[in-house]
Amino acid sequence: MAGEVKLVVVSTPDIASLNQGKALLAKGGWQSGPQVEDDDTWSQADVRIWWFHDRLLQQDDLDLRWYESTGEQVSEVIFPSRHVAASGKPSLTVHPIGVMYHGVDEEVPFGGKPGRAPPPNTRLGPWFRELLAIDVQNIRDTFEISLEVTHHGPWLNAPSLFIEIGSTPNEWPHETAAELLADVIWRGLGLDGGSGIGGWDEERNRGEKVLIGLGGGHYAIRLCSVASNSGIWLGHMLANYALVMEKPDDDSWQPSSGELPSGLWRQAIDEAIDSTRKAFPGGEVCAYLDRKSFKGWQRQSIMRYLQELAIPIGRTKDFLGGE
User: Strand pairing of 73-84 and 160-167?
Assistant: First the structure.
């Protein structure tokens, strides 16, 4: 059986994805590979590009489908993509995927398995910092650099991340932005001859802290500030909207001692922790709370539940010293 490979899935109907893929190919050194599901592929070292014919969010098990076609086990998946936002704000983003905040019997409009999240790619935090380090003036003046919290599909077993150009049709075709994101992918996966950026080694990194983010908005503003520090490892991130909880009706209820609120928030936290542990074997999963984004009873309930799970709750200084 062939060895493990890193898979970059380019969605050809998505101009932002397509341009990142073209920029990767333009760097040279690629060899044409076998057709996979009638799509073209390219190979270089242990990296593969799949020139995928469709959009991605509903396309589950792409890692397994690659293995079934090629015999190559996929160790991680990178999805170059466009980013859509109602605000229309130009942005470059990275994020993990999953819909662990849906009920297991619910329909999920943007793909994935309800109640589940693939492992987050360990490169998430380091690549976010690579985006922050971009020093091209018209990009810095035009685009906001941001994390996004965990959201949407597809479902995979391999650690995954999306790297995106947003947020409207005006920005999606931006070739300079695509070239810069392709350069992050190129260097990040070690195609420049280096060792790559953001890989996790179970022995070398054993015991290092890995942060899961809880609270805040979709762009995790406070978490972006934390993650901008060198050495921060990032796992899944859940916004307030993903932590649905219902306050008990009993007027005498106390969040420090009463029954825990109902809702899907515990399911979401459990899946975020379990999935992050799979991505960072040997790491110590800790929680960062955007404390100001919660009502007092919500914050106390979450902290109490994390304590029951023996998950440390830290502040910025507690997470420094990885990578």
Answer: parallel
User: What CA–CA distance (Å, rounded) separates 56 from 18?
Assistant: 13
pLDDT digits (tens, 9 = 90+) for 47-56: 999 999 999 9
Q: What is the mean pLDDT of residues 76-96?
A: 95
The CA–CA distances, whole Å, from 128 to 10, 148, 246 equal 20, 10, 34
Residues forming a β-bridge with 247: none
CA 123 vs CA 137, 219, 323: distances in Å: 25, 18, 9
Looking at residue 3, its pLDDT comes to 77
Q: Calculate mean pLDDT across residues 166-191.
A: 97
- First CA to last CA distance, the chain: 31
pLDDT in tens, 118-134: 999 999 999 999 999 99
DSSP 37: T
3-state secondary structure 160-216: EEEEEEEECCCCCCCHHHHHHHHHHHHHHCCCCCCCCCCCCCCCCCCCCEEEEEECC
Listed residue (124, 174, 178) closest to 146, CA to CA: 124
What's this model's pTM, rounded to 2 decimal places? Answer: 0.96
User: For residue range 130-141, what is the model confidence (pLDDT) as tens digits?
Assistant: 999 999 998 999
Question: Domain 209-319 - what CATH class?
Answer: alpha beta
* Mean residue pLDDT across the chain: 95
Write out the DSSP string of 99-161.
Answer: BTTS-TTS--TT-S-BT--PPBPTTHHHHHHHHHT---HHHHHH-EEEE--S------SS-EE
Tell me how far apart the alpha carbons of residues 8 and 51 are, in angstroms, rounded to a whole number.
Answer: 9
Give the C-alpha separation, 274 to 272, whole Å. Answer: 6
Q: Find the helix or strand (DSSP H, E) in which 286 lies.
A: strand 284-289
Homologous superfamily in CATH for domain 4-188: AF0625-like (3.40.630.50)
- The domain segmentation of the chain, as residue ranges, is 4-188, 209-319
Q: How many residues does the chain have?
A: 323
Do residues 232 and 320 touch, judged by C-beta distance below 8 A?
Answer: yes
Specify burial of residue 13 (Cβ count, 10 A radius: 0-12, 13-18, 19+).
exposed
